[in-house]
Amino acid sequence: MAKSSKKPQAKPATKPPVVAPVVAPAIDIGLSDGERRKIAEGLSRFLADAYTLYLKTHNFHWNVTGPMFNTLHTMFEAQYNEEWTALDEVAERIRALGFNAPGSYADFARLSSIAEEPLSSTADWREMVRQLVLGNEAVCRTARKVLKGADDAGDDPSVDLLTQRLQTHEKYAWMLRSLLQ
Q1: CA-to-CA distance for 95 and 43, rounded, in angstroms?
Q2: What phi and psi values does residue 122 have, to the nearest 5 degrees?
Q3: For 119-142, how does the pLDDT look when each residue is reduced to its tens digit (9 = 90+)?
Q4: Terminal-residue alpha carbon distance, the chain
Q5: Around 107, how many Cα atoms within 13 Å sit in the side-chain half-sphere?
Q6: Domain range annotation of the chain
Q7: Smallest Cα–Cα separation from 79: which of 158, 181, 174?
Q8: How many Å apart are CA 131 and CA 56, to the nearest integer?
Q9: Label partner for 5 (CA 20 to 30 A): which of 14, 36, 124, 140?
Q10: Can you tell me whether residue 18 is helix, strand or coil?
């Protein structure tokens, strides 16, 4: 067989196919945009209260003194560790509803119902405990308000989350108040 003297022709350059960008579908979890927004706004206020209480509890863990030092140092540590974990759950619920969770001190200061009450360097453990009782009760009040709206909208995951947080913060308020009685 005779070999052909023709040179192989180069294939013409082909452009890669144009692929349309993938766009995330709209959120459709059985709650209207307005319901999701209202719940997320409430959860943001709850997150701000819970974060403010977390900071206060951690601060008191570091700075408690006096005859109740060991008991309170340990109690505050257990509480702030539990509170820290719960903060993530709340923020992730806000994200699941399609909104950004607040995440700055300025956001938390604006949204929180818990006032800063600076301690003097001579403040004793009783004042710390009093402030934590009030802080836990404030978190409970905010949770109840948000829970009502979430329940009305049929947002069972938010209701469940808030119910769990209510149980925890009511227990903390009771335990702390018992120290002052």
Answers
A1: 10
A2: -105, 5
A3: 776 679 999 999 999 999 999 999
A4: 109
A5: 14
A6: 33-180
A7: 174
A8: 9
A9: 14
A10: coil
Residue type, 9: Q
Do 132 and 52 touch, CB atoms closer than 8 A? no
State the pLDDT at residue 2.
58
Our measurement of the distance from residue 16's CA atom to the centroid of its chain's CA atoms, rounded to an integer in Å, reads 44
Are 147 and 163 contacting, i.e. CB atoms less than 8 angstroms apart? yes
Q: Which CATH architecture has domain 33-180?
A: Up-down Bundle (1.20)
Question: What type of residue sits at position 117?
Answer: E
What is the distance between the alpha carbons of residues 169 and 157, in angstroms, rounded to a whole number? 18
Q: How many residues does the chain have?
A: 181
| Beta strand spans in the chain (E) | none
Place of tokens 């900071």: 55
| Residues 60 and 72: beta-carbon distance below 8 Å | yes
